[in-house]
Specification:
The chain is mainly β. It has helices at residues 89-93, 117-120, and strands at 6-10, 22-34, 39-44, 57-60, 65-75, 78-83, 99-103, 124-127, 132-141, 146-151, 157-161, 167-171, 176-179. It has two domains: 6-106, Elongation Factor Tu (Ef-tu), domain 3 (Beta Barrel), CATH 2.40.30; 121-179, PRC-barrel domain (SH3 type barrels, Roll), CATH 2.30.30.
């Protein structure tokens, strides 16, 4: 399982033990105001929406404006949030279409063998003989399993299923994923 989080801002000073891990990750996008008392709809991008509780601080927009959540409830299209200082429909409308981010230092700890997508982006992919195949440039969520988009040095793309029979080892410290390609997978 790989919880999804969009990569937003790289910062080697993130406090992470992994060099180059971003400091902020997108967890949602604010939509339209809801009602007249400062609620706004947030489309949820995270697998962990339960951490966005009253009292939590999120960072909104390109300026990473810190906002404290004062109220939260589930809505058909995501979550309805209220922020400290945004008490009216007109106030909160200023936040429409802005991304909501959290610091990576506050992310939930995953079980062994689980990784956040942002941790896998940019990793080198090698076959079981150690031959370089390329770098991960994207991840497709198919429902059954994720698929790594690997771009080779000659600019060709290889699609690698993220399944146990293919992925031998993921080593974040070495920035490497070792795979056992299925027959016909590598051109």
């Amino acid at each position: 399982m790989m919880p999804r989080h969009a990569r937003l801002q790289d910062d080697d000073q993130s406090g992470s033990s992994i060099p180059g891990e971003p400091e902020f990750l997108v967890v949602g996008k604010l939509g339209k105001p809801h009602g007249v008392d400062g609620e706004i709809v947030m489309e949820v991008y995270t697998d962990f929406p339960e951490r966005l509780q009253e009292g939590a601080v999120v960072y909104v927009g390109k300026q990473f404006k810190p906002l404290q959540i004062t109220r939260r409830r589930v809505h058909a299209r995501g979550l309805l949030l209220c922020f400290d200082g945004y008490l009216t429909r007109e106030n909160v409308a200023e936040l429409t279409n802005l991304l909501v981010q959290v610091r990576t230092s506050g992310l939930p700890v995953l079980q062994e063998g689980e990784y956040y997508q942002h941790q896998l982006m940019g990793l080198n992919v090698v076959d079981e003989r150690g031959e370089m195949l390329g770098r991960i440039t994207g991840i497709i969520e198919t429902g059954a399993n994720d698929v790594f988009i690997v771009q080779g040095e000659d600019e060709h793309e290889i699609l690698i299923p993220a399944i146990d029979s293919v992925v031998i080892n993921i080593d974040l410290e070495a920035s490497q994923i070792r795979i056992r390609p299925l027959p016909g997978l590598i051109p």
